[in-house]
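Q: My labmate handed me this sequence with no annotations at all. I'd like to see what the chain might look like in three dimensions before we decide whether it's worth expressing. Could you predict it?
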Amino acid sequence: MNNYNSYTSPAFQQIFVQGIEGARAYQLPYGVTSAILWDAEKDLFYVKKVDAMGRPSIVKTCSYADYVEPEPVPPVAQMPDIDTSSFVTKEYLNQVLNQLFVGEKGRVVRDESA
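A: Here is what I predict for the chain of 114 residues:
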C-alpha cells in the first residue's frame, strides 16, 4: 500500500486582473497578507496588502518596461588641483608688457630672439 504524505510547496502564481477595478475587487486568500496582481490590459502591476485589521488596499501601482543596459562611460582624467590665485590674466600681462617695452614712437618693442 502506497501511503505518500507528500507536501507540495506553493508555486508562484501570476494573478491577472482586469485593470485597477479588478485589483480592488480581488480578494486575497486567508492567511495571505500581500500579493502582486498583474494587469491583463496594460503594462502595469499592483501590490495589494492587507493591514492588521484585515482591510485590503492597493499599496502601489507600477509600470514595467524593457530594461536597456546603458553604455559604460569611460572615466574622465581628472586635472590636478592647481592654485591659480598667483596667476595673472592675459590682459594684465599685456598691459604690464606695454608699460615696460614702449618704443620711441609709442609702439610695443618685441624681442625677436626670445
